[in-house]
Design a protein that fits this description.
The complex is a heterodimer of chains A (507) and B (163). Chain A contains 20 helices and 4 strands. In chain A, the strands form 2 sheets. Chain A has a two-stranded antiparallel sheet. Chain A has a two-stranded antiparallel sheet with strand order 3-4. With 163 residues, chain B is an all-alpha fold. Helices cover 56% and strands 0% of the residues of chain B. Chain B starts with a helix and ends with a helix. Classes of the chains: A mainly alpha (507), B mainly alpha (163).
């Protein structure tokens, strides 16, 4: 309340447009800035402003409810509207905050990983990616979603490919991501086209109304739904469509990995929620079937198989990438059960997992920064050589497993509770089993780091060499955030419940 | 048979779409994959343009232009001045009746065309990034065949690290 009084009125009124316009404009400016420090500073300031804006919009939204911003004064459904409601406000905060945290971390990381003449373009692509993600979350127009989806995707391909200075496999990873990402986006736009054929509108709320009038619509709407689910499935790394993800996460520059892992798939998941529950409705038989058989089925298979694959990785970043695919499975399971409690739990896991994976990848990046390591066997003795970094990794890792008093525990217990309430006891069992699998792959790293002595290089034991403060600060912020959420989860659970109630109605 | 001709565009769309997707998945050459991707995206352009076609519809040009903004409400002052006189339509002859607000003339839906302009731009951007990546891959690996790239990275992958 008191915070909102500090925020000027124009920011609350025009904040939604500001959120996507500011990074878009500043990306162009940043690209031509000659000095890479100035480029970093401009990105830092922009993301700081975005974070404040997103926070105030979210607080304002909690106070006044859904707001619709008419872009250019054109009234929806003809004009493009920007909608802020209980569903997307937390995701907006998440994306803005993660971009801010990543930029702080990127200061030392880019010095090590990006060539000096590429740094200004790097920050420009980063801002474009942020703009695209914020835009696709905030917009109320289905075609606009596609445009922003592609803005964020294309800049992501560039960001991933910039990892080539560190590891040449980044190039082929970026290429694979480009091919699969474009196919996904094209599937999505085919789906939007069919939906437009069925309803004659592009505004998502209007589509929802017309589809409800048509009682779910004809076969065209069914085909549209199929295309949209597959397209978004590719973007959010639904299990058999996840093959782009491990490469993209493992070989991109470390700040990019952290940012992607905590925002890109999450924004796509938000869109899946928006389309399955808001535009379409689980009361239509075909939507219910997809939820029950595709999302739950692929979610559960993904949870098990990706966790198993994670166990057998030798590269820790690939391991965490497979773990991300498994965690997406939890969210899909929550969405697929389709009760208010389960969707809230899935949504909560979306937010929590972003915090957890962000922290883990930031810690891994710091280890690469100091020692140039990503392989499992190189983690020997890291508990002694980088105690603070390893501490952040440990906290986030325990949270990923779902140890009590961490964020991961809150969302997993909510999800298991929701599954049990719906009578899906086998799903509870799967959640428990995959948590044990997570314990194995995270525990393996922790065992090596804490119970083995540091390796000897050239006759001397590797000395303590802590990461710089600009890296420690972001990763500990996220690690402490995940403990904070674990101890005091009311605000997050409340936000997730409000989002689920918006989609499914209370009860 | 007449059904086939009335849905002629959709058949072309499906053929193009499947050709493109098949090319993406079946070829191991990076450039050929991108070509397949372009064909695939082109099929979507055609799909959207087909959606916009209204049978017997005129080109969507307004003759009576009222103020835009708040739902045609605020009178002519804020908008364009009224057009008068005859408007030459590129494809038409003198007997052409132009559609306008309130007229019962059929006209094609212009919206999909506008949408697909955006999608074309997106497609060009994707293709150019893809080609740029291919150039970089060729510089690093000296090949654009996926099999050879994988073979070159095989030892690299076994080691699990970059030096």
């Amino acid at each position: 309340m008191s915070f909102l009084e500090l925020v000027p009125d124009w920011l609350l009124t025009h904040g939604p447009a500001f959120l996507m316009a500011l990074p878009l404009i500043m990306a162009a400016v940043t690209a031509i800035l000659p000095n890479k420090r100035v480029a970093w500073a401009s990105t830092f300031i922009v993301t700081a402003i975005l974070t404040v804006t997103a926070f105030s919009i979210a607080l304002y939204n909690a106070e006044v409810g859904t707001t619709i911003y008419k872009m250019g004064g054109w009234a929806p459904p003809h004009g493009i509207s920007l909608v802020v409601d209980a569903l997307n406000a937390p995701v907006l905060v998440l994306i803005a905050l993660m971009s801010f945290i990543t930029v702080i971390y990127a200061m030392p990381a880019t010095v090590a990983e990006i060539k000096p003449n590429k740094r200004a373009p790097f920050y420009a692509a980063f801002l474009l990616c942020t703009a695209g993600l914020l835009g696709m979350v905030i917009t109320g127009d289905a075609f606009n979603v596609f445009v922003f989806l592609e803005v964020s995707s294309i800049s992501t391909y560039v960001l991933v490919a910039m990892g080539a200075a560190r590891d040449r496999r980044a190039l082929s990873a970026a290429y694979n991501y480009l091919i699969l990402g474009s196919i996904g986006a094209t599937f999505f736009v085919i789906g939007i086209g069919f939906l437009f054929m069925e309803t004659g509108t592009l505004n998502m709320a209007d589509m929802a109304r017309i589809l409800a009038d048509l009682d779910g619509g004809s076969r065209v709407a069914k085909v549209a739904f199929g295309f949209i689910v597959i397209g978004l499935g590719l973007k959010l790394a639904m299990f058999p469509l996840h093959t782009w993800l491990p490469g993209a996460y493992a070989y991109s520059p470390t700040p990019v990995t952290a940012f992607l892992a905590s925002t890109a798939t999450k924004a796509a998941l938000y869109l899946l929620l928006r389309f399955t529950f808001f535009v379409f409705d689980p009361s239509y038989a075909y939507v219910a079937d997809v939820l029950m058989f595709i999302l739950v089925g692929m979610g559960v298979v993904g949870m098990i198989f990706a966790s198993l694959q994670a166990i057998f990785q030798t590269d820790v970043r690939r391991m965490l990438a497979f773990s991300s695919v498994a965690q997406v499975g939890y969210m899909l399971l929550g969405i697929g059960i389709a009760t208010t409690a389960s969707v809230a739990a899935g949504y909560l896991h979306l937010l929590n997992h972003a915090i957890i994976k962000g922290g883990l990848f930031l810690a891994l990046g710091a280890m690469w920064y100091r020692f140039g390591i990503t392989r499992m066997e190189d983690f020997r003795g890291l508990g002694k050589t980088m105690p603070l970094t390893m501490g952040a990794f440990t906290v986030s890792g325990l949270s990923l497993i779902g140890v009590p008093f961490t964020a991961g525990f809150v969302s997993k217990i909510n999800l298991a509770g929701a599954a049990a309430d719906a009578g899906w006891w086998w799903a509870v069992a799967v959640i428990m089993i995959t948590s044990i699998l997570a314990l194995i792959y995270i525990g393996r790293v922790l065992l090596l780091a804490y119970f083995q002595s540091p390796p000897t290089v050239n006759g001397t034991v590797v000395a303590r060499n802590e990461a710089p403060i600009a890296m420690l600060l972001p990763m500990w912020t996220l690690a402490l955030a995940s403990i904070f959420v674990g101890l005091k989860s009311d605000a997050m659970v409340g936000a997730a419940t409000r989002a689920a109630e918006l989609l499914l109605g209370a009860g | 048979m007449s059904d086939w001709f009335s849905q002629y565009n959709y058949i072309v769309v499906i053929i193009l779409m499947m050709t493109g997707l098949y090319t993406v998945f079946a070829s191991r050459n990076l450039i050929k994959k991108l070509a397949g991707l372009s064909v695939f995206q082109t099929s979507v352009f055609l799909l959207y343009i087909t959606i916009g076609k209204v049978s017997g519809g005129q080109p969507p040009i307004l003759i009576e232009d009222k103020g835009y903004g708040d739902d045609y409400g605020s009178g002519g002052d804020g908008g364009h001045s009224l057009l008068d006189g005859t408007i030459q339509v590129a494809a038409g002859d003198a007997a052409y009746i132009l559609p306008g607000p309130g007229s019962d003339v059929l006209y094609s839906n212009p919206l999909p065309h506008v949408l697909i302009l955006t999608a074309i731009v997106v497609g060009v951007a994707t293709l150019s990034i893809g080609l740029a990546l291919t150039v970089r891959i060729r510089e690093v690996y000296r090949t654009i065949e996926e099999d050879e790239i994988e073979a070159a990275d095989f030892v690299y992958n076994l080691e699990g690290t970059a030096d």
